[in-house]
UniProtKB/TrEMBL annotation:
Pfam family, one: FCD
Record carries keyword DNA-binding: yes
Source organism (scientific name): Actinopolymorpha cephalotaxi
Span of domain HTH gntR-type: 13-80
Highest taxon above the source species: Bacteria
Name this protein carries in UniProt: DNA-binding GntR family transcriptional regulator
SUPFAM superfamilies assigned: GntR ligand-binding domain-like, Winged helix' DNA-binding domain
Keywords from the named record: DNA-binding, Transcription, Transcription regulation
Annotated InterPro entries: GntR_C, TF_FadR/GntR_C, Tscrpt_reg_HTH_GntR, WH-like_DNA-bd_sf, WH_DNA-bd_sf
Claim: Transcription is one of the keywords in the record: yes
Record-level Gene Ontology MF annotations: DNA binding; DNA-binding transcription factor activity
PROSITE patterns in the cross-refs: HTH_GNTR (PS50949)
Length: 235
């Protein structure tokens, strides 16, 4: 691993959690490439921790879908597949429809003010943004819906797939750089639908909004399934 790519970790929190957060961020930001081998020894040395927290992080990241553990070979960054996109899209659609139908009656002025602040940031983007920056603006808007849905289990499911959604959005933005044309417009339409206070209108708006990104992702030249042999996995 190149020197300086990560900084030594503080000790205020459990090392396993800290290592997980650092590696998750590096994966979602594209610092590790799909299929790349994550070597325990190199990461432990770079982060100045033992291999135990690295293994804990790998286990967590495998549960989240960021990493694949292969028997006798170690950890590899997950490769984006058509199956991944379909599964995460359908799960996200189910929980976000529920979140939106509940949030539209709970947000009131404060929640919409938070949305408007993000929309203003989107509106003020005048040059083509980096795919990661566009993804983060998009997610910041949707985080508000979940924050006001009043459903802790839905919020936990969203937290568990948010990293994967980040990866998908980045891929979508890199291949279809149309954020200037649709980013602000589509999210404003969603905001206005939520402001109606009608759960069905909120659900319909969510369906329309996230299906657009899904249709673009389906057009990418991705494998149907992970090309790695099943026997390579530890499970």
């Amino acid at each position: 691993m190149p020197e300086g790519i990560v900084s030594p970790l503080p000790s205020q929190r459990a090392l396993g959690d800290l290592v997980t957060d650092v590696l998750r961020e590096m994966i979602t930001e594209g610092k590790f490439q799909p299929g790349e081998h994550l070597r325990e020894s190199h990461l432990a040395e770079a982060l100045q921790v033992s291999r135990g927290p690295i293994r804990q992080a790998f286990a967590r990241l495998e549960e989240e879908g960021h990493v694949e553990l292969r028997r006798h070979r170690g950890a590899f960054v997950s490769t984006l597949t058509k199956a991944d996109i379909e599964e995460v899209h359908t799960l996200r659609g189910a929980i976000e429809r529920l979140a939106a139908s509940r949030a539209c009656a709970r947000m009131q002025g404060e929640g919409f003010a938070e949305m408007d602040a993000v929309l203003e940031q989107m509106r003020n983007v005048h040059t083509r943004p980096d795919p990661e920056d566009a993804a983060q603006l998009d997610l910041r808007f949707h985080d508000i819906i979940y924050a006001y849905c009043g459903h802790s289990r839905v919020q936990r499911v969203w937290a568990s797939i948010r990293g994967q959604v980040t990866v998908f959005l980045r891929a979508r933005n890199a291949s279809f750089p149309d954020f200037l044309e649709v980013g602000h417009v589509e999210h404003l339409e969603l905001r206005d639908a939520l402001a109606l206070g009608d759960p069905q209108a909120a659900q319909d708006a969510i369906d329309k909004h996230i299906s657009g990104a899904y249709e673009r992702l389906k057009r990418l030249n991705l494998p149907d399934r992970d090309p790695s042999p099943a026997e390579d996995r530890t499970s």
